[in-house]
Amino acid sequence: MKILGINAFGHDTSAALVIDGKLIAAVEEERLNREKSTRAFPHLSIEYCLKEANIEFEDVDYITYAYQPYLWLTHRFLYHQLRFFPQALGELKYVKRMISKFMFLKSNIQKELKTNKPIILLKHHDAHMGSTFLVSPFEEAAILTLDGLGEYETSVQAVGKGTSIKRLDHILFPNSLGSMYACISHFVGYTAELDEGKVMGLAAYGDASEYYNDFKKLVKLKKDGTFQLDLSYFEYHKKEIPG
């Protein structure tokens, strides 16, 4: 079975090809079009993966995408708007853009690729877990994902065994270490969803003890190993971070 995975309609677009359970090729579009953090549809990445496998696009059985938009709509948007109304109304521009991009996700992909091949939409954090554990040398492992936001999850804890992954727990937006990092990157003068790596690199030259107590106010580590943010310091759950 030949499965083509794509990341599109957002930053750092990419593609990967799996054949009979084995990863054959994977590449980010920026490596090929030379545009940092490109948002271009990954046509070049798809072409590269197919060439590496010496197959044609017609040979692909399934296309996968790591996002389930209706989960985002029901859990992240509707629940979040009700919970933080009216402050979250500042997100409406972001919400409108997300709806235009993702509510017709399958048809948009088919239109770009000029195909009617079946498209499977995966939960975002399931794709994160699969892309690490299933290509690792481990038969069994603990798995932890952390990012800004999937559909509504910001972290998932799971156990991988063989070719299966069992979820144990998750953390929901707006408690998000990724969003916190993006906010701090923006606060010190960098661009969110682009320059976090620069901030991470610069951190090695700083004195962690100087701001340790400040960060303890921002993030509370709970006894069960999860975390909770003090949202009074942030606005990312009320309006989009400039980026």
Automatic annotation (TrEMBL):
Gene3D superfamilies in the record: 3.30.420.40
Keywords recorded for this protein, A-Z: Transferase
Ranges for domain Carbamoyltransferase: 2-238
Statement: the UniProt record of this protein carries the keyword Transferase: yes
InterPro entries, per the entry: ATPase_NBD, Carbtransf_dom, NodU/CmcH_Carbamoyltrnsfr
Record Pfam families: Carbam_trans_N
UniProt GO molecular function: transferase activity
Ranges annotated as spanning the membrane: none
Superkingdom in the source lineage: Bacteria
Name of the protein in its database record: Carbamoyltransferase domain protein
Organism of this sequence: Leptospira borgpetersenii str. 200701203
